[in-house]
Each structure stands twice: as structure tokens, then as C-alpha cells.
TrEMBL record:
UniProt protein name: ABC transporter permease
Annotated ranges, domain ABC transmembrane type-1: 204-460
Listed InterPro entries: BP-dependent_transpt_permease (IPR050366), MetI-like (IPR000515), MetI-like_sf (IPR035906)
Subcellular location: Cell membrane
Keyword annotations from UniProtKB, A to Z: Cell membrane, Membrane, Transmembrane, Transmembrane helix, Transport
Membrane topology value: Multi-pass membrane protein
PROSITE patterns (alphabetical): ABC_TM1
Species the sequence originates in: Rhodobacter calidifons
Predominant localisation class: membrane
Length: 470
């Protein structure tokens, strides 16, 4: 079987165009920098008679060159992927085209999401307004691409992420794998002859299985403690703030390292922390429904009963691994990592919520709610919290990005969910040992991790931009 090239048949025409566009982009960026340093980037001023200058300044021309060369390079890449995707075989499609074909479930789901979201964006609140921001749309597209990749990982992956194929150890991208169902290692093999592309795809599932859920739990803890601390103040605020500052005083990486080491499992600390932290989502939902429907006992009892039934069922399985049906469970390594993420992030969320509540509780609509005789928890959960959603949503996106980096760091130190896990941090750690000889096993998951964090940051910027307009 033939070795795959990066661009396949389409590269003979499009690759030179891409190289020219990238060269033009580099020259335009350099010219733009020179003109900025020389002070030639300001627009031309009108002449003495008041008429506008006809010619553009050198800085403006350089900016136009940057824009057009960037779009030319992007167009060449898109055309290359599209051309490769319609080729009849991976040999003609090339590595990029073959990967574009493998990601078809993610492309289809992403296209459907964008079409429906843009169609109904005026009815979707802050989420719909996100599509008025170019930066937000780009960030959302990157994040959702990896989310759909994690969901459809079994379809996208070309090989078993743990399978080792004889003769494919440290093979370069595009190497033939004749004894496999797919036939090629699109991004090469690692030091154990496993497919790098499949491990990157399955690694997205490992990362997104922990980071968003753990961040959500941390927000539940932070909101549940931050609302009463900011609203009531006094000794309650003093005690909780002291404990939060005590946790925040530790260096984050050191605290993570202490909490996820295998030896810590023997002390029982992760189970104690899980028993304490995992109860907060149940408390939050009970108080939420009770405050909203306290005047409607049948509906309140229904919602509170469902929360208690499902919540305690999940709580027994996640915290103590005692679910009789085996639906809710968490491996010891994952429990360590999950609890560590929640424990480290909760104090930061608490301080943000506390500060927002202290600011919002002085607003007129809060005073109006107090005048109407509404209870304090109703005011906190249904008056103050919805008006603090903008900063909290932005922080949620950013915190998922920070958590993703921390998970990658833990995996790099060999403290991830399991030693052979395909999560990106562990894969980077495996590949770094031969980085100078075979860079592709480490560079591939590093680029994936970078793109996801970049997408989360752009999404947070877009959400911040649109929330400020409310």
C-alpha cells in the first residue's frame, strides 16, 4: 500500500497557492509591524480644502494585505480539504482529505447546529445573540467541533485507540497499515505502535468527559455558598470567605498534585471530599424548586421528590460507588481528578458569586421583591442569580479551558485517569520522550488541546461582548 501524502492529488495545484498566500501573509505582517513602529499606520488626514485624501496610508494598505492574504490562505486550505473529501480513495485524498472525510459526523452536526441556531437566534436569548459576534461564532464552532468529535469518536476513529500493530512503531503520518481494516495510520504511530489519530479523537472524549461536568459541580458549590454569603453577610460571610481564601492560598498545581497522587486514595480523603462536595448540587436544586414553588405544594413536592430520588441515587454511586444498578459509578483515579477539579475551582466561583450578589442586592428590583414579601432564597435564586448570568457564563467557559489545561498537565505528569488513557495530557507525556526524533505523537494532541482552549477563550470573549450589550 502506498504512503499517503498530506494533500494528495489536489495538493499539486492548491499547495503552491497556499505557500504563496502564506508567504504574502508573512510579508504583510512584517510590513504592518514596520509601519506601526514608524508611525505610518494612521489614516491620511483631509487636505486644506476639507476634501478627504485619495490615497491610503502605508499602514492601511498593509492591513488590507494581511486581511486578503489570510483569507486566501484560509480559502486554499478549505479547498484542499473539500477536494480531498470528494476523492475516491485516501491515496488521492491525502492525509488532510482523509481526515476531513473521517470527521463527517462532526461536520454534519456542526452544520445542523449553526443552521438551526442562526434560524432561531432571536428566540434563544444570550445564546442566540452569540451569533451576532464573529469572535463568538468562531469560538463556538471550535468548541462544538470537539464536542461532536467526542460524541461520535467511535465512528470517527480509524482504529482501536489501545491496539498495537506490529511494524508501525513511531511510523510517520500517512504510513500504510496493511493488516488493519482502514489501511493507514493517518497521523502515524506512537512508541507503542498505536494510531495517533485515533488516540487524539478518543482523547477528546476523555477530556470533555471530565472538564465540563467537574466545572459545573464547582459552580453548584460556589453558587450555593456564594449567594447567602453575599446576601446575608455577617459571620456566615466571614467564615466561608476565610475557608475559600485558605484554599486559594495554595498554588493550584501543587494542590492538584497533592490531591490526585495514588497514595492519597489510601487516606480516604477523596471519598470524604466527594461526600461533601457532591451533595451541593442536590441542595441547590432542592432550594431552587422549593423557593420557586413554595406556594404550589403539589408541584414543589413533585420536583423536590424527583431531585431527591435521582440525586441521592447518583450521589451514592458517584461518591461511594454503591449504586445497586451500576449506572452511576466513577473509577478511583477519575474520582481523584474530578474531586480535585471541583475542590480547587469552587473557591474562585464562590468569590465571583459573592461579589456579584453584593453589587446586585442594592438594585431597585431586589428592594421591590423584598417589599412584596418574597423570601430571601427566592430573591437570591430568581432575582439576583439570573441578572448575574452574563459574568458567570463567561467565567464558566474560561474555567473549562483552565480545567482542560490542568487535566493536560496532570496527564503530562502521569497523574491522569489511567496510565494508558488516550487523554491529551497523557499522550503528550508519552510522545515527549522521543520528541526530537518523532514529534508527531506529542504535537498532535498538543495542537488539539491548544485549539480547544483557544475556542473556549474566543467563546468567552463573544459571550462577554454580547452580555455587556444587554
Amino acid at each position: 500500500m502506498d504512503q499517503l501524502t498530506w494533500t494528495g492529488t489536489a495538493g499539486t495545484v492548491l499547495l503552491p497557492l497556499l505557500q504563496v498566500a502564506l508567504l504574502a501573509l508573512a510579508l504583510a505582517l512584517a510590513a504592518r509591524l514596520v509601519f506601526v513602529l514608524a508611525g505610518l499606520d494612521a489614516p491620511r488626514l483631509p487636505g486644506p480644502d476639507g476634501t478627504a485624501a485619495a490615497a491610503r496610508s502605508p499602514g492601511e494598505l498593509a492591513s488590507l494585505a494581511v486581511r486578503y492574504s489570510f483569507f486566501a490562505a484560509l480559502g486554499a486550505i478549505i479547498c484542499m480539504l473539500a477536494a480531498g473529501a470528494v476523492m475516491p480513495s485516501p491515496v488521492e485524498a491525502g492525509i488532510l482529505g482523509a481526515m476531513a472525510v473521517r470527521f463527517w459526523p462532526a461536520w454534519a452536526a456542526l452544520a445542523a447546529t449553526f443552521v438551526l441556531s442562526i434560524r432561531y437566534r432571536r428566540k434563544l436569548g444570550l445564546y442566540g445573540k452569540l451569533f451576532d459576534s464573529t469572535v463568538g461564532m468562531i469560538g463556538f464552532a471550535i468548541v462544538m467541533f470537539w464536542v461532536f468529535t467526542a460524541i461520535f469518536a467511535d465512528v470517527i476513529a480509524t482504529h482501536d485507540a489501545f491496539a498495537q500493530m506490529s511494524g508501525l512503531k513511531n511510523k510517520p503520518p500517512g504510513s500504510a497499515a496493511p493488516d488493519t481494516a482502514y489501511g493507514w495510520y493517518l497521523l502515524g504511530g506512537d512508541h507503542l505502535a498505536r494510531d495517533v489519530f485515533s488516540r487524539m479523537v478518543m482523547g477528546a472524549r476523555e477530556v470533555l468527559k471530565i472538564a465540563p461536568a467537574a466545572t459545573l459541580f464547582a459552580f453548584m458549590v460556589g453558587i450555593t455558598l456564594g449567594l447567602p454569603a453575599g446576601y446575608f453577610g455577617g459571620r456566615l460571610d466571614t467564615v466561608i470567605s476565610f475557608l475559600a481564601n485558605l484554599v486559594l492560598a495554595f498554588p493550584v498545581i501543587l494542590l492538584f498534585y497533592l490531591l490526585v497522587t495514588p497514595e492519597i486514595r489510601n487516606t480516604g480523603i477523596p471519598i470524604v471530599l466527594a461526600a461533601f462536595l457532591f451533595i451541593f448540587p442536590i441542595i441547590f436544586l432542592i432550594v431552587l424548586f422549593n423557593s420557586r414553588y413554595h406556594t404550589n405544594p403539589p408541584k414543589r413536592n413533585l420536583y423536590v421528590g424527583l431531585v431527591l430520588l435521582i440525586g441521592l441515587w447518583a450521589y451514592s454511586g458517584l461518591a461511594f460507588n454503591r449504586d445497586p444498578l451500576g449506572i452511576w459509578s466513577m473509577q478511583p483515579n477519575m474520582l481523584n481528578v474530578f474531586v480535585s477539579v471541583v475542590f480547587v475551582n469552587s473557591p474562585g466561583v464562590f468569590r465571583i458569586v459573592r461579589g456579584l450578589v453584593m453589587d446586585i442586592k442594592a438594585r431597585d428590583y431586589v428592594a421591590a421583591g423584598q417589599t412584596r414579601g418574597e423570601g430571601p432564597w427566592y430573591i437570591m435564586l430568581w432575582e439576583i442569580l439570573p441578572n448575574a448570568r452574563g459574568p458567570l457564563i463567561v467565567d464558566f467557559c474560561l474555567r473549562i479551558g483552565y480545567t482542560t489545561i490542568l487535566l493536560g498537565t496532570l496527564g503530562f505528569f502521569g497523574l491522569g485517569v489511567s496510565p494508558d488513557s488516550p487523554d491529551w495530557g497523557s499522550t503528550i507525556d508519552d510522545g515527549r520522550k522521543l520528541l526530537n526524533l518523532f514529534p508527531h505523537p506529542a504535537v498532535t494532541p498538543a495542537l488539539a488541546l491548544m485549539s480547544l482552549v483557544l475556542g473556549l477563550n474566543l467563546l468567552a470573549d463573544g459571550l462577554r461582548e454580547e452580555s455587556l450589550r444587554d
